[in-house]
């Protein structure tokens, strides 16, 4: 029997039987001890009553007591000796009475000597068997503990460690030789589960990289014709071929705007496919976040003026964070330009820095737009999603900006999110866990 | 200014030539692959090389390296590329004076060339 349950059952059955047998032995000795004490007591009572037999006035009562004791006495020699005393008394011959009494006393004295010896042996036996029983019980406890620790707790501990390792990407899941018991079953199941997960992860990764490669090639192939289209339109617009009338120029402007939009979309797809294929390098340095925000805001002044939105700086102190400046600026540009696009005329866009409960640096962009419905708040960070509820005018974008921003922020171990109530504006924010308010010595001056 | 344009896509080449001649007022000689570009660059006295990165026979970076190791006083090189990987951009700056991303806007192509040449002079 190899199973832990089986081994433990067998172990307890064998040990249990031995302990039970020993307990029985102790009990038996106690019983013998108590019987010996009873016999000593009966012998004593018999001797007391025998002495009374010689007195006529006490004889009747004494005989009655002796008759009661006679069947209780062992061994038979004592019982017979007492019968002789009773018979002699009934006959009434004093000399015979005396000799039977003497005979009984001799036998009883011998019995007491032997019994005291036996009692000593019984006491020793009781002590001996009790000690062995206690010892066995203690051994049973210790043995069980050691066995469980070796066969159950230690393996369980290593299994849970391997499971945790598996979760943090170590993939050192394999248990080389699972033992032939319940723990081994668990390890074997874990092995096959891990194998299945890894196979599926591999398949997904292969699928993912095929997809990323396709996107990358497709985007590159798309850029070549876009170059020709954009170039042709630009040359027509510049009037190098011939001066065009206003209607033609208008049409060309529309074509140029839409071409630019298509190019942005292609660029965003290429960016995202690179992020997903982990082909993008991040160049993280200590940078003053305030300067990055200011640079972004300056570059978006034009857009804000066109949209009649006011950009407001809130609590912009010196905070230094370990970031890839270009990517974080791309995130900020995305959030702020979105806020401008969704702002009402003469609305405000607040950009500021806070510190979260977790102690992370939080950069937020708040607008006074229509807000975002709760069901849309998660979706907008997914690819090709835009909140286009009836309150929101369809704003032209690629639908990839927030997905890219999310990927960039997550590369910095931060989180990106939105707080919004329809009708009360939105707050978009992202957090950066690695920051300080004291200027690190190796700070790059934002340029 | 006499510019060597190496570009394999005939449509982009046509547009770039028109842009450089009509908008920039430059003289342009055109190569449609890497070997032709290297040959023209060595045998003609040009003021600037505009090299597409992905070309048949030899890519832009190779043309640039071979040109610079052959000619005694090489002229500035600007790369035209749809690539935007960090390491590519680093290489463009190491061997040339800069890079113009595709797709480009004709008006800004001329401006960007002037800007890169000015930066290189400083």
Tell me what the structure shows.
- The complex is a heterodimer of chains A (447) and B (122).
- Chain A has 447 residues and is of the alpha+beta class.
- In chain A, 65% of the residues lie in helices and 10% in strands.
- About 1% of the residues of chain A have low confidence.
- Chain A has eleven helices and nine strands.
- Chain A is rod-shaped and about 170 Å long.
- Chain B is an alpha/beta fold.
- Helices cover 50% and strands 20% of the residues of chain B.
- Chain B has a five-stranded parallel sheet, sandwiched between helices.
- In chain B, α3 links the parallel β3 and β4.
- Chain B is globular.
- The model of chain B has no long low-confidence stretch (mean pLDDT 86).
- Chains A and B meet through α5 and α6 of A and α1 of B.
Rg calc of chain B: 13 Å
Straight-line N-to-C gap of chain B: 19 Å
Strands of chain B, count: 5
Q: Roughly what percent helix of chain A?
A: 55-70%
Largest sheet of chain A: 5 strands, mixed
Average pLDDT confidence of chain B is: 86
Rounded average pLDDT of chain A: 86
SSE map:
The complex is a heterodimer of chains A (447) and B (122).
Chain A: H1 4-53, H2 56-69, H3 76-91, H4 94-167, H5 182-238, H6 246-276, E1 285-288, H7 289-299, H8 301-306, E2 310-314, E3 320-323, H9 325-341, E4 348-355, E5 361-366, H10 374-377, H11 401-411, E6 416-420, E7 426-432, E8 435-436, E9 443-444
Parallel strand pairs in A: 1-9, 2-4
Antiparallel strand pairs in A: 1-3, 3-8, 4-5, 5-7, 6-7
Helix pairs in contact in A: 1-2, 1-4, 2-3, 3-4, 4-5, 5-6, 6-11, 7-9, 9-11
Chain B: E1 2-6, H1 10-23, E2 27-31, H2 34-43, E3 48-52, H3 60-70, E4 77-81, H4 86-95, E5 98-101, H5 106-121
Parallel strand pairs in B: 1-2, 1-3, 3-4, 4-5
Summary?
By secondary structure, chain A is of the alpha+beta class.
Top keywords for this entry?
heterodimer, A: 447 residues, alpha+beta, five-stranded mixed sheet, four-stranded mixed sheet, 11 helices, rod-shaped, B: 122 residues, alpha/beta, 5 strands, 50% helix, globular
């Amino acid at each position: 029997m190899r199973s832990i349950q089986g081994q433990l059952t067998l172990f307890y059955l064998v040990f249990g039987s031995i302990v039970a047998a020993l307990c029985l032995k102790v009990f038996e000795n106690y019983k013998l001890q108590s019987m010996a004490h009873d016999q000593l007591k009966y012998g004593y009572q018999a001797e007391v009553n025998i002495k009374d037999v010689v007195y006529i006035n006490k004889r009747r009562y004494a005989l009655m007591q002796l008759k009661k004791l006679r069947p209780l006495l062992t061994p038979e020699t004592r019982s017979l000796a007492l019968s002789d005393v009773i018979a002699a008394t009934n006959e009434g011959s004093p000399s015979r009475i005396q000799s039977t009494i003497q005979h009984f006393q001799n036998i009883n004295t011998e019995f007491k000597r032997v019994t005291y010896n036996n009692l000593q042996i019984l006491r020793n036996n009781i002590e001996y068997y009790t000690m062995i029983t206690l010892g066995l019980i203690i051994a049973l406890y210790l043995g069980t503990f050691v066995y469980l620790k070796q066969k159950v707790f230690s393996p369980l501990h290593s299994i849970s460690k391997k499971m945790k390792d598996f979760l943090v990407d170590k993939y050192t899941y394999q248990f080389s030789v699972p033992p032939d018991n319940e723990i081994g079953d668990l390890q074997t199941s874990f092995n096959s589960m891990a194998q299945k997960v890894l196979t599926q992860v591999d398949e997904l990764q292969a699928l993912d990289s095929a997809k990323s490669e396709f996107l990358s090639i497709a985007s590159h192939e798309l850029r070549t014709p876009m170059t020709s289209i954009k170039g042709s339109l630009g040359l027509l617009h510049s009037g190098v071929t011939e001066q065009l009338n206003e209607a033609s120029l208008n049409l060309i402007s529309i074509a140029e705007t839409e071409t630019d939009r298509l190019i942005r979309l292609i660029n965003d797809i290429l960016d995202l496919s690179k992020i997903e294929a982990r082909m993008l390098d991040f160049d993280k340095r200590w940078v003053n976040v305030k300067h990055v925000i200011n640079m972004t805001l300056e570059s978006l002044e034009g857009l804000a003026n066109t949209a009649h939105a006011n950009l407001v700086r809130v609590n912009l102190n010196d905070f230094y964070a370990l970031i890839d400046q270009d990517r974080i600026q791309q995130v900020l540009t995305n959030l702020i330009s979105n806020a401008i696009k969704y702002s009402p005329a003469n609305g405000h866009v607040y950009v500021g820095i806070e510190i979260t409960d977790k102690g992370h640096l939080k950069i937020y962009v708040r607008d006074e737009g229509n807000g975002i419905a709760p069901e849309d708040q998660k979706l907008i960070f997914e690819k090709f999603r835009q909140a286009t509820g009836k309150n929101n005018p369809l704003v032209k974008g690629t639908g990839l900006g927030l997905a890219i921003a999310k990927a960039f922020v997550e590369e910095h171990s931060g989180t990106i999110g939105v707080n919004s109530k329809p009708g009360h504006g939105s707050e978009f924010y992202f957090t950066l866990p690695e920051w300080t308010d004291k200027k690190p010595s190796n700070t790059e001056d934002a340029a | 200014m006499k510019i060597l344009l190496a570009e394999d896509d005939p449509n982009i080449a046509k547009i770039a030539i028109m842009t450089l001649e009509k908008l920039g007022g430059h003289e342009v000689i055109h190569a449609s692959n890497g070997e032709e570009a290297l040959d023209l660059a060595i045998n003609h006295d040009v003021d600037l090389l505009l090299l597409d990165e992905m070309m048949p026979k030899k890519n832009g970076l190779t043309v640039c390296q071979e040109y610079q190791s052959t000619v005694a006083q090489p002229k500035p090189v600007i790369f035209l590329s749809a690539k935007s990987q960090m390491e590519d951009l680093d290489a463009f700056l190491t061997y040339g004076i800069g890079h113009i991303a595709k797709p480009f806007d004709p008006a800004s192509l001329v401006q960007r060339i002037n800007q890169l040449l000015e930066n290189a002079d400083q």
